[in-house]
Amino acid sequence: MNKISSARFDDVQDRKTTSALVANVDLVVVRHDDAVSVLYGRCAHRAALMSDGCVRGRDLICGAHGWDYQIETGVSSYNSSERLQKFNAWIERGDILVEEDEIADWEREHPQPYHRDAYPGLYSDTHGSSMEPRVKYIQAPARDGLSQVGHHGRVSAMGVPRDQLPLWDDIQFVTAQLNPVQ
Questions:
Q1: Where are the domains of the chain?
Q2: Cross-strand bridge partners of residue 96
Q3: Rounded-to-integer distance, Cα 118 and Cα 124, Å
């Protein structure tokens, strides 16, 4: 058993998110009335920290894109196939406790790819998205500098697929619109 550091039940505000790290796994702790839920602390959508989110009613809402999970179960209210792992947690002598071995076993099956001491650390988007195919490229110069790509870097639109951008031929000017005298 492992006490969640700095998480005494009375210090955790009701229906507010609290972060914790146990066995290299980000957790989100949510007190609800006289109970506590400890869930995997990364959104299933884009891996944002759930402790940066909020609680609305019975749902934990991701602060990045609004995905929701029931605080008692970790199951998404919107899409029941999406869920956050719920870990056993209990309150003993005012401390919030979890079974560290349970979390470590889960981490072995779901290795955490976050390098906390390097950019972007806790805020890595390990999933990516077909809608934003250049995010990993954008993060590389931010992390490694421009020495590998030249002074201006590679020229492309920030996160937008090139085939979805307007062409110069699509841009039209009506010269009357350019006249400052109305």
A1: 2-109, 128-182
A2: 91
A3: 10
Token pair for residue 78?
């919107």
List the structure tokens of 67: 């995905």
167 φ/ψ sector (left φ>0, alpha ψ -120 to 50, else beta)? beta
Token pair in block for residue 90: 């209990």
Q: What is the pLDDT of residues 135-150, one digit of tens each?
A: 667 677 777 777 776 6
d(CA 102, CA 110): 12
Say what the alpha-carbon torsion angle 31, 32, 34, 38 is, to the nearest 10 degrees. -40
Query: What's the pLDDT band for 50 if we cut at 50, 70, 90?
Result: very high
Cα–Cα distance measured from residue 127 to residue 11, given in angstroms and rounded to the nearest whole number: 34
Specify the CATH number of the domain 2-109.
2.102.10.10
Measured in residues, the chain has a length of 182
